[in-house]
Structures are given as structure tokens and as C-alpha cells.
Amino acid sequence: MLILLFGRLHRVVLVDSEEAPKSSKKDDGNVRVPRAKRRRHQPIKVSNQIPTSRRKEIEKALEEPSSTPKTWSRASGWKSHRIGRKLVKPGTIRQIEYDLMDVEIGESWPIPITVIHGSRPGPVVTLIGALHGNELVGPLALTYLQSHAILGEDKPIDPSTVAGTIRIIPIVNMPGYRRRSRYMTDGRDLNRFFPGKEDSNTTSRVANRLWKEIFQNSDHILDLHTAALGRSNMPQIRANLANPASNRSARSFGIEVILDSEGPKGSLRRTADDYGISCITYEGGGADEADPESIQIAMYGVLNVLRSLKVIPGYSSRPRFRLLASGSVWIRSDHGGLLDVLTPAGSWVEENELVATVSDPEHPGVSMEIRSPTDGLLICIATHPFVTTGTPIGHLLPISKGIKTVKRRLDDEGVLVLSGADGEPPWREDDEIEDISVEGEWEGGSPDAEWGENIPSAAEEEADEA
Ligand SMILES: [Zn+2]
């Protein structure tokens, strides 16, 4: 069984609760400017069902029988696994260096890949971290998964019992990682350039090489991320639930929050989906951080997916409930200044609850309030204090059904205790899990769009060129 790698977690409390009560009804001694009551957002209409059209799409996709590819059958023979120019024999582990670039002079950017090629046929599962170079939860989780407690004889991942192939790539964007940057050396976002082009810019070439030699011949991809710099995500899965294989992977990860979305244009997830390859994205914590809880949940999740795919033996653990979200609500600052957040990612917040204050060194003694527009679960919160009017500071799943179920799993600070965060989660039947649907839309087309990104995507660059 998995050995708990981390001790009791110390949650960061941003503000002492005695100094800053969550409810504004209490007198907290802070000086505040009187302000008319108003809500930036209208309450979103929420029902307990995913929108009918989307539900039909998902149900139809799930009806399609999943066939076992011919290459998994014993009749075809289980051969060595090829990655780039290297071969890995059945029943063995091999660590290889894979070059992101094919060059005759200059840097070829080698990245480490561990290939566990099972002795029995099965799917090819690719586990990756640091597609964004400064997102370190993935690299840490994927490194710990290769520790002696987990990988080896009689351990959860035992090459002699593995069916299929597991490819572990802790750091994809090595050039960004070395520079502690999200981006590639040319300032582009690698996760917006898939499937890439071999004769285009540097990032596009790297994306193309990775796509053709690693991702396109995967059956399942698990892509581990954190929030971008300046914000923090509560652990969550993002998947296109209308892709049957992605849908199953997302559910088998064993996590409470699943966002149903297609992913931004040029992202690995969206591209894989377009090619019919299962791909889910895990998000937990923030960039430049090593959040132990997010790492631990990622590790359990990866093992859960491998178990449910029968790549490794055992049963997946499951959460008590699942929030399947097709939309969200944004909390924005109506003021410019410096932010003081009172509710960490993962907090349950009530309608009109004070979630942050804004003050401004140029206007000492004045403090403005930011309140939640609705009841719900904060899936992401700003951690960088600088805000201007309209800056999103929190991302909320509006929840109107299943509130009791969710609240039962809150700790004494009102933060959701996720499955896997308090030790190895129990096994339970899939039908014992309460599915709670959260209706809505993703503003800007994908969950993170409203945070804003400055680097243009490949599609946008092409449009500019045209
Ligand atoms: Zn990322």
C-alpha cells in the first residue's frame, strides 16, 4: 500500500481569524468606506443537471462500446516499446534521455523519461509534468511515484505485473523549468502550440516532435499542472466528458471536482481529444510552489487511474461525492490596490460572504470589500496582491444542490477536505458516489480564460500572419 509521504499539513491561514472575521456583520475594527450594497454578478441559474444538450452528448459518447485495440491482444505478440529511437523490452524499466530538438550543433534539450514496459499487453499511459516550466507539483508527484515505496518488486507499480506501458515524464518543458518560467525560451506557451509544425517557430517545433513521437501514440495522457503564477487552484480534474475514455479516466482519478471543458486551443488536452486520445488535466496548487496536499492527491489519482485501466492491480479509491461542473462564477475586484484574501482555494463560501479586502497605499485608512456573489466552492483564488478594477480574484463553482453533502466534508476553517488529503482514501463502489452537477458556462470558452493570458496562441498567431 502507498506509504504516506507527507506529515500533517499546515494550511496557510492568510489572515488571523480573530482580526478578520469572515462575516462582515461582526465589528472587526477595520475602517471601511460606506458602500451601497450591490452585486457584480447576477446569481447564476443552477440546476442539479448538466445542461440537456451537453448531457445527451456525454450519454451518447458513453454508449459507444470501447474496443480493445488489436495491439493489446496476445495474438499480435507483445513487443518491445519504442520511444524516439530507443527500445524498451517487455517486463523492464528503462530510463532514457529524450531530445526535445533534433540539432547538429547547439542545445538539444534532453528530458528524462522513465518507461515501465509491462510483461503483459495493455494500454500506453503517458504521465507528464511541467508542460509549464514553473509548475512543480507534477514534477514532484511523478518523481515520488518512482520512489522505492511505490515502484519496484511487490510495490504498487511492479514491472512484472504491469499490463501495458507507463511512460513517466516529470519535466516536459525543461528549458522553461531551468529558467523557472512557464514559457519556452522564445516566450511562447508550449501548451498552446499542439500539434505543432516542424517548420514553424521553436515552440511549435518542440510541440510537433513531442506530439508525433510521444503523445500521438499514447492511449491515455495524464497532464499534471498547477495554477499560473499569482493564483492557486484547489486540486481538480479537467476533462472533455464527451470523450468516453477521458470521462472514465476523470472519474477514476478519485477526486471531488471535475470541470467538463474542451481545453484552450492548441492545448495538449484539446488536441488529444480531437485525435480521440484520452487526456485529462490535473490542476493543484500554484506555480513556484510545492504544495504537499496537491502532490499527494496527484499521486493517489495517478495510481487510481492506472488501477482502473488494469495497468496495475488493485481497486481505485473513490471520493464520497463528485461535482461535475460545466460552468463557474467569477469574483472580481471593483477596486484597484492591494488584495488581502481571507478564503483560501477550496473554501466553501456563502452568498455575500467577505472573501477579500482591497487597500491602497496611496489612500491610507481606506479598505474596500470583495464579497462572494453566490454560495459555492472556491476552486481558485488570487495569491498575488496587485489588482485593478475588474481583475478576477476568485473562481467559484456555484452550488445549490448537494450543499449538505459538500458541507459534511469541510474542516473547521471551512475548507473542503479532499479524498486522499487525509490519508489513503477508502475503496467504494462507483454507484455509492453522489454525483452533483453544477450548471453554467465557462466565460471565454474555457475554465481559465478570464484570468487572461498575454501570450498569443498558435491559432491567434496564424490569424495575425494571415
Ligand atoms: Zn499549467
List keywords for this structure.
binds zinc ion; four-stranded antiparallel beta sheet; alpha/beta; 25% strand; 14-stranded mixed beta sheet; disordered N terminus; 466 residues
Give an overview in words.
The chain is an alpha/beta fold and 466 residues long. The protein has a domain at 52-61 and 76-324: Aminopeptidase (3-Layer(aba) Sandwich), CATH 3.40.630.10. Helices cover 18% and strands 25% of the residues. The protein is built from nine helices and 20 strands. The protein has helices at residues 52-63, 137-144, 174-178, 202-215, 244-252, 268-274, 292-308, 403-407, 458-465; strands at residues 81-83, 86-88, 92-99, 110-117, 120-129, 163-169, 220-227, 231-239, 257-260, 278-286, 321-325, 329-332, 337-341, 348-349, 354-359, 367-371, 376-382, 386-387, 392-398, 434-438. Strands 3, 4, 5, 6, 7, 8, 9, 10, 11, 12, 14, 17, 19 and 20 form a 14-stranded mixed beta sheet that branches. Helix 2 links the parallel strand 5 and strand 6 (163-169). The longest helix is centred in the middle third of the chain and has 17 residues, at 292-308. The termini are far apart. The chain binds zinc ion (ZN). Residues 132, 135, 225 line the site of zinc ion.
How would you summarize this macromolecular structure in one to three sentences?
By secondary structure, this protein is an alpha/beta fold. The protein has helices at 52-63, 137-144, 174-178, 202-215, 244-252, 268-274, 292-308, 403-407, 458-465; strands spanning 81-83, 86-88, 92-99, 110-117, 120-129, 163-169, 220-227, 231-239, 257-260, 278-286, 321-325, 329-332, 337-341, 348-349, 354-359, 367-371, 376-382, 386-387, 392-398, 434-438.
